[in-house]
Design a protein that fits this description.
binds adenosine-5'-diphosphate, seven-stranded parallel sheet, 646 residues, binds magnesium ion, alpha/beta, 39% helix, 19% strand
Length: 646
């Protein structure tokens, strides 16, 4: 049993105490057997007179005659054959269920005392191995220790929040006396979660006050030329982002800004602006990416512009030659993976660092940047999360959003196609190929190793080459390719020497080929919403109309949430809107883009409903910054386990 409980994350009494019921049984009236009527749920109490086990097709029914002083009825349990032995004549039982024909269909029961049949009995997330009943027993036993739990909130602050004490909250969580009790308990526990996070953020903010960066003054001649070199006008959102960045760079307080924008919204253009501000002030800039592929992609974008401006720019990844690598650190702008930049570049030389996809960076790596005078830092993320949420998770960063993409884009047309009509998707794809466009086919997301994913992708590429894509040039991109091969493949695709890239999700970020205007995602129902949105972002990068074709099993075979995801993708291309939908569908704390952000630890917080609580937690955190209490450990644990941006 221990092992089975551990699978649910229940290892200690504390885990059990904080195991949140999914819901509570509603209150139902207790009735005398003779007075049962209709099909409404009710509770009856009585004595067992007789029992028998009955088989009806595949079902096993346990039937018991139960009597109270008003009458007798047959109570029926489905598929719980073992109960037949436990229900002995003469035994007192309490049953919760409803009339079905002339029988009483039992939903829950108590053989002694009142627990499962009680009003507001907790219904825990259970498994086949660990039933709700078992969990109730375990939680009931753990509750004896609830009074020993230390309340992390100092008494004087607790009063101000109007929330119940921790022990009371834990008791009420498992044994609410009325409907509102459970919710009050949840809010108190949610408050603690938010407080731990806000406390960590507040401390970090404080810790930064000592730090200094190089003040970069006013924008100068180089960025002036940069604007003229760009083949387009900046959008109002980009201008706004630049204005906010300029305001930060003027001062000595290190910039800590999060630049959020959908895929293709034009963040890189803004990031390069920030880097050039470092260069024109006589310093250097670095663009750090989480993967080599992404670093290479960035370099391909940035280098030609730098060349046009007479700024030296170098790529620093493990696959560039030793000589180039030695030379890189002296370039004015260095693009590379974070690890190599931290190794190879004297970080104090950097005036501006742009960190792409910041949630993928580890804490230590960010800490390394902070030694000595540190760069102004711009974190970029293409997995937008709602602004309020951003403030929660990145409470110590300033947030800039690019919400509107450049106007010349045509929205991607997204279609959801059932498997049996997949040939239509390929017909559309090949028609576009014949017009000179290029395409991606994304392989199913099988839960397996990178190696088996790679193999599956190669097989699928072979199959397509012989079937749907006969006559076209097909390449296969996956995570097991050697850097040289990968670069070569991407270069050939970019040069239109390949028509189709069959790929695993490695193309999710960074791949930028405007002539690729159609994407088929196989078994799209397996992907998360944010991931599909990222994948889709690989098309729609040029002026041509682009298409994203999501192929899945038939609608009826999908879970409700899979249907909702695909419907959402068809209905909008707005990443912020999708992030909201994702939040709704996945529930708090599981938002894809925030997987590693500490939010995944939220068990009680409902981010939408608890905004007010969040504000409170932030205020209390300010007062508790220097407080050495039981929360310290939790703050440290949260911030060590998770990749919270430094
Ligand atoms: P992101 O980094 O947000 O995914 P990029 O900066 O890579 O977006 O821009 C995506 C594409 O849009 C690039 O090809 C870029 O040249 C182009 N682009 C960026 N800003 C503009 C603009 N203001 N007008 C037209 N095209 C733009
Ligand atoms: Mg980009």
């Amino acid at each position: 049993m221990k092992k089975r409980l551990a699978k649910l994350g229940l290892r200690t009494v504390g885990d059990v105490l904080e195991y949140r019921p999914r819901r509570y049984e509603p209150a139902v009236p207790e009735r005398r057997i003779a007075e049962l009527f209709g099909e409404d749920e009710a509770v009856i109490s009585g004595e067992v007179r007789s029992t028998r086990l009955q088989r009806a097709r595949r079902l096993k029914l346990v039937k018991a005659r139960v009597a109270d002083e008003s009458g007798e009825i047959t109570a029926v349990w489905f598929n719980q054959a073992w109960l037949a032995d436990r229900l002995r004549p003469g035994m007192q039982v309490r049953l919760r269920g409803n009339l079905r024909g002339r029988d009483f269909a039992v939903r829950s029961y108590d053989l002694d005392g009142v627990s499962a049949t009680a009003d507001f009995a907790p219904v825990y997330p259970a498994t086949e191995e660990v039933t709700v009943k078992k969990l109730r027993d375990v939680a009931g036993a753990a509750l004896e220790y609830a009074r020993d739990v230390v309340d992390p909130l100092p008494a004087e602050l607790k009063g101000a929040t109007g929330l119940p004490g921790k022990a009371d909250a834990l008791v009420a969580l498992h044994h609410p006396r009325e409907e509102t009790d459970g919710e009050r308990a949840r809010r108190r526990l949610a408050f603690d979660e938010l407080l731990v996070l806000q406390l960590g953020l507040a401390r970090r903010r404080l810790g930064r006050e000592e730090e200094r960066a190089t003040a970069l003054g006013q924008p100068g001649e180089l960025v002036e030329r940069y604007r003229t070199v760009l083949p387009f006008e900046l959008t109002p959102d980009q201008e706004q982002a630049i204005a906010e960045i300029d305001a930060d760079l003027r001062g000595e307080r290190p910039m800590e800004r999060l630049l959020q924008g959908d895929v293709g919204s034009g963040k890189t253009v803004v990031a390069l602006y920030a880097l050039l501000r470092a260069v024109e002030a006589g310093h250097r800039g670095a663009l750090m990416a989480p993967t080599e592929t992404l670093a290479e992609q960035h370099f391909l974008t940035v280098e030609p512009i730098c060349a046009a401006l007479g700024v030296s720019c170098a790529l620093l990844t493990s696959s560039v030659g030793a000589r180039a690598r030695r030379a890189a650190p002296s370039a004015q702008i260095v693009v590379g993976t974070h690890a190599l930049i931290q190794e190879g570049v004297e970080l104090s030389d950097l005036a501006v660092a742009v960190v792409d996809e910041q949630h993928r960076f580890g804490v230590e790596q960010r800490a390394a940047i902070r030694a000595g005078r540190r760069p102004h830092t711009l974190h970029m993320t293409a997995t937008p999360i709602p602004r309020t949420l951003a403030l929660t998770v990145y409470g110590d960063l300033s947030v800039t959003e690019i919400t509107k993409p450049p106007a010349n884009r045509m929205p991607i047309v997204t279609r959801w196609i059932p498997e049996e009509r997949a040939s239509e998707a390929y017909r559309r794809l090949t028609r576009l190929l014949k017009e000179g466009r290029q395409a991606y086919v994304v392989c199913p997301l099988i839960e397996a190793s990178e190696t088996s994913r790679a193999r599956a992708a190669e097989q699928e590429a072979d199959r397509l080459q012989r079937a749907e894509l006969r006559g076209f040039r097909v390449g296969c991109l996956h995570g097991k390719l050697k850097p040289d091969d990968r670069r070569d493949l991407m270069a050939r695709f970019k040069a239109r020497q390949l028509d189709v890239l069959v790929a695993t999700t490695v193309i999710e970020v960074g791949v930028d080929v405007p002539n690729a205007t159609v994407m088929i995602v196989q078994e799209a129902d397996r992907f998360g919403l944010a991931q599909l949105h990222q994948l889709r972002g690989r098309v729609g990068r040029g002026a041509e109309q682009s298409y994203c074709l999501l192929v899945s099993r038939r609608k009826e075979e999908l879970t409700e949430s899979a249907q909702a995801r695909l419907e959402a993708l068809v209905s909008t291309t707005d990443g912020f809107e999708l992030a909201e939908v994702d939040l709704e569908l996945r529930g708090e704390g599981q938002l894809l883009g925030t997987r590693q952000s500490g939010l995944s630890d939220f068990r009680f917080t409902k981010l939408r409903a608890d905004r007010h609580l969040l504000e409170q937690a932030r205020e209390v955190a300010e007062q508790l910054v220097d407080y050495e209490g039981p929360l310290n450990e939790e703050v440290e644990r949260l911030f060590a386990e998770h990749d919270l941006p430094a």
